[in-house]
Amino acid sequence: MRAVVQRVASASVTIEGQVVASISRGLLILLGIEEPDGEEDIAWLVPKIARMRIFSDDEGRMNRSVVEAGGGVIVVSQFTLHASTKKGNRPSFIRAARPEQSEPLYQRFCAAMEAELGFSIGTGRFGADMQVALVNDGPVTITMDSRARE
Fold first, then answer.
1. Which of 63, 62, 69, 66 is nearest to 114 (CA)?
2. pLDDT tens digit string along 107-147?
3. In sequence order, which ranges of 2-131 are alpha helices (DSSP H)?
4. What residue numbers bound the domain in which 132 lies?
5. Structural domain tally of the chain?
């Protein structure tokens, strides 16, 4: 599982002209799922992201989690995070899990994130054509891969 975690001043997801999720300060998480991914990947990623101290404390140090900072969270499924650009100019998405596997894992990831945070999160719509808008704060962008665990 790959996640791109962005600290945002604001973010929203629009589908067919309708805003389906929006937050002010918080995290926008783009989530890519590949075939070998499962519950253990969710169990590793969710607490890491929820507890990640990337929000400023009173002294301006990145020392608070999204919960401590009073922020919101949006999670968007993004299979293109598993693009292979090794050959040619057209990315290959063969490593991304098929929808019948990735959609249930995406839903479980979102449920686990809500349970970990203790509040409801915003989401995109799996498989939809979405417009994701954000104002990256910092900018702070962190990539995580449950296979690498760095």
1. 66
2. 999 999 999 999 999 999 988 999 999 999 999 999 999 98
3. 39-51, 99-117
4. 2-145
5. 1
Point out the catalytic residue in the list 80, 107, 131, 143.
80
- Please pick, among 6, 55, 79, 109, the residue that the annotation labels catalytic: 79
- pLDDT one-digit tens code per residue, 87-116: 888 888 878 888 898 999 999 999 999 999
Q: Is position 78 annotated as part of the catalytic site? A: yes
- 79 has catalytic annotation: yes
CB distance 105 to 33 below 8 Å? yes
Residue 142, helix vs strand vs coil: strand
Exposed/middle/buried for 90, CB within 10 Å: 0-12, 13-18, 19+? exposed
User: Is 80 a known active-site residue?
Assistant: yes
pLDDT, tens digit (0-9, with 9 covering 90-100), for 25-54 = 999 999 999 989 999 999 999 999 999 999
Q: Spell out the residues 6+ positions from residue 42 whose beta carbon is closer than 8 angstroms to its own.
A: 1, 105, 108, 109, 112
* Residue 24's CATH number: 3.50.80.10
Query: Is residue 112 a part of any domain in this protein?
Result: yes
Q: Are strands 2-15 and 122-123 parallel, antiparallel or unpaired?
A: unpaired
Q: State yes or no: cis peptide before 139, omega within 30 of 0.
A: yes
Residue 150 in any domain: the answer is no
